[in-house]
Amino acid sequence: MLFYILMESLFLVVLVYFLFLLLYLKLDSFYEMMSCYECGFDVNSVSRVVFSYRFFLLSILFIIFDVKISLMLPIPYVMVSFMGVYLFYFFIFVLMMGFFYEYFYGSLDWLDCFIMKN
User: What reaction(s) does this enzyme catalyze (predicted)?
Assistant: First the structure.
């Protein structure tokens, strides 16, 4: 059962990757048609919004732990042996070690960005 879930998720990831690649190649070929036109000049700089690195890191951590929750939901139905329980605890241990690493590294500390140091 777990094998089929993993294969299905792998298939979906590969499918999304190929769809993205297909759309990217399609948009790349129509660059002139998709680019903005202002007095016949090409745009020299990229106009993009700058966002906080801490926000990006927090969103990545949220995605990882959200996937963790979705992987933990079918565990009681799939792994009924002692080896399955040990693998489940090892999985939780590795994720918690990553969380504590991020916590002690200071990536989750938001007060440092707002307090001005003298």
Answer: a ubiquinone + NADH + 5 H(+)(in) = a ubiquinol + NAD(+) + 4 H(+)(out)
